[in-house]
Amino acid sequence: MARSARDYDESDVRIRPNRRGSRPRTKDRPKHEDALPGRVLTVDRGRYTTLVGDDRDGRVVIAMRARELGRKGIVVGDRVALVGDTSGAHGSLARIVRVEERETLLRRTADDTDPVERVLVANADQLVVVSALANPEPRPRLIDRCLVAAYDAGMDPLLVLTKADLTDPAPFLEQYAPLSVPHVVTAREDGRTVGLDAVHDVLAGRVSVLVGHSGVGKSTLVNALVPDAARATGVVNDVTGRGRHTSTSAVALALPHDDGWVIDTPGVRSFGLAHVDPDRIVTHFPDLEPGTDGCPRGCTHDEEECALDAWVEGGAAGPAGPSRLESLRRLLRTRLPASED
Question: Residue 84 carries which DSSP code?
């Protein structure tokens, strides 16, 4: 016989245990003291290729980001801590539970008005700006922007000029003589790269990130330095003078026969610097920086009230002062908006 609602009492109700409240909640996260250290080599759609162990004899481990990291970004060059299946076996997947403190950050913005920074590479100590001397023509303003990014990141800049077999590099290098930026020149002869040994010498023992616009020979250079890299190479359009993007993602590669690393990046056509503070650029001109003490508050160092003019005219910056000041101001002007570099 069916029972009515009045026939039920509390003894007929089954109480299910509250499982969510059965354990005290805590904000303490596991320390993962047994996590293995690794280096991020590539990033691809939420999967991180890492190297665990020795730079030469380590094993490649594919990993995902642990939920506890939240929105914290992970980029090529990051040193991380991994747990889970770190065997590197086919189909295995580890978890990145910690991103170690970064020594340097190479950053850019989408344009000069975008306040959102985008971290490109972590822990590199040398920024190698690769530019062709011809085919395509060099873009000094883009090079200047890369130099500013290097100074801002605390990285040493290096110019690598390719295709010297097509034109004399001397006129171009005169523009950068006041900045004292080290440079290496390469050329192609009989199907081989001349000057490669000099490039290898300045990369040895360093973590170097290579940047440059498409078609300058960056991937060709990487393939010559790391024969197993197999980076795709392209050609320059005869009409537009632009190269085709052949490298689609950044990748860290160990240099053979020494402990250096190169990080190849996709070709760029612009380099936004909205995040850069002009005062940080001035610190890389130690002969000029003391002269800014007399500048008005908020001085851009490129205006009539700037005290650097009097500093240079008085000889405090030495005989190279005028050209150094012009180079500084040229770099500062790169932060002005431009349609394309």
Answer: E
Most distant CA pair in the chain, distance: 110
Q: Over the stretch 204-244, which tens digit does the pLDDT of each residue have?
A: 999 999 998 888 888 888 988 998 876 544 443 332 334 33
Q: What number of other Cβ atoms are within 10 A of residue 234's Cβ?
A: 15
User: Which tokens go with 250?
Assistant: 């950044």
Where do the structural domains in the chain lie, given as residue ranges?
A: 36-99, 105-264, 278-333
Q: What is the rounded distance in angstroms from the CA atom of residue 40 to the CA atom of residue 219?
A: 20
pTM: 0.79
Helices marked H in the chain — which ranges? Answer: 140-153, 170-174, 196-203, 218-225, 278-282, 308-313, 321-333
* CA distance linking residue 143 with residue 111, whole number of Å: 15
* CA–CA separation, 321 and 12 (whole Å): 93
Query: Tokens 């691809």, residue?
Result: 44
Q: What is the pLDDT of residues 124-183, one digit of tens each?
A: 999 999 999 999 899 888 888 889 889 889 999 999 999 999 999 999 998 888 888 999
Cα 220 to Cα 187: distance, rounded to the nearest angstrom: 12
Q: Which residue has the tokens 């490298």?
A: 247
- What is the CATH architecture of 36-99? Beta Barrel (2.40)
Q: How far is CA 90 from CA 45, 56, 60, 228, in A?
A: 18, 20, 10, 21
CA–CA dist 324, 341 (Å, integer): 23
Q: Which residues contact 253 (CB under 8 A, 6 or more apart)?
A: 41, 222, 225, 226, 229, 261, 262, 263, 264
- Domain 105-264 in CATH 1.20.810.10: no
